[in-house]
Amino acid sequence: MKFRLSHLGMLAFLLAGSPVTVNADEQKSLDVFYYALTDQYIASFKNDIDSLARKMNISLESFDANNDSGTQELQIANTLSNNKAKIVNLVRPEITESVIENCKKNNLRVIFFNRQPDIKLLDGYSKAWYVEGDSMLAGQMQAEMIISYIKANPQIDRNKDGRISTIILNGPEDHQATYLRTSAVTVKLFSEYNNIDITKLCGNFDSLKARGELENYVINNGIDKVELIISNNDAMALGALSVLNNEGFNTGNKKKNYIPVFGIDGVEPAIQAIKEGKLEGTLVNDTKEQARAILELAVAEEQDNHELGKKLNLKVWENGTVYIPYTKVINK
């Protein structure tokens, strides 16, 4: 089974700057706070950050909050006196204010990533930034893949009722990426089609949770009421795939018992499933490029966002946000 990496991926690679290496006698030390390293995507992200930090001669100390915001607040508070910049993957956006205020009191740089902080609060501190893939663009690009698939595969309407029965697997309700990805993909799809029926299931970005939600839906409604699956991330898409496999679908033969499943993130198991003809498409969230932006923001001397943008070869918005483009990976 062939698969294709969009030319945008090569373009992003060519445009990306080279990481800055810190001299041995000027080695920087940074603290990195993760919301939960049990999350496959976050664990993979950590590997990219760790690998690049070694190349840049940066020492890291990592903390795992195990999805507990109280634990994360305490972890950050206990490290404020060490004068290290803080890199934070928030458990909940509600703790943005306390994180920024603590860093501000201690004149520390803070770089948020993956989970969006309260953006309004970034404006109040010139040493705070947020690095992420553009979730709205991700939803739009996901819709583009789906539209192309529907046009090429009118047989998607398996039960021939004139409608496309669609499941959207959402992330946590309070996660900004959930809202942006879901709203963007649905708006673009509805601009092209008026025969798409959508059922939203909350999988919390978790494979097992998504699997359970879809299993219950299939038990109550039947597999015939599932003709398209759109997932806010790859973990949930893979959870959905296990349900489809148990129903005899998506086993590698696209000509028989196949339901297109689209994810976001580009984790390795999803890429492999696309190669095997079991998933239809995903978007690579370039964690290596995000890691570069995060680490360079953390060790830079500059505070001016325009100057930082030139240094990173990326757009740094006035409020301190830096968006990294996605790349399509499609089952061909």
TrEMBL record:
Keywords: Metal-binding, Signal. The keyword Flavoprotein does not apply. The keyword Signal applies. Residues 1-24 form the signal peptide. Residues 33-300 form the Periplasmic binding protein domain. It comes from the Bacteria. InterPro entries: MglB-like_PBP1 (IPR044085), Peripla_BP_I (IPR028082), SBP_2_dom (IPR025997). It is found in: Cell envelope. SUPFAM superfamilies: Periplasmic binding protein-like I. GO terms for biological process: transmembrane transport. One of its GO terms (cellular component) is cell envelope. Gene3D superfamilies: 3.40.50.2300. Pfam families: Peripla_BP_4 (PF13407). One of its GO terms (molecular function) is carbohydrate binding. Belongs to the bacterial solute-binding protein 2 family. The ABC transporter complex is composed of one ATP-binding protein (MglA), two transmembrane proteins (MglC) and a solute-binding protein (MglB). This is D-galactose/methyl-galactoside binding periplasmic protein MglB.
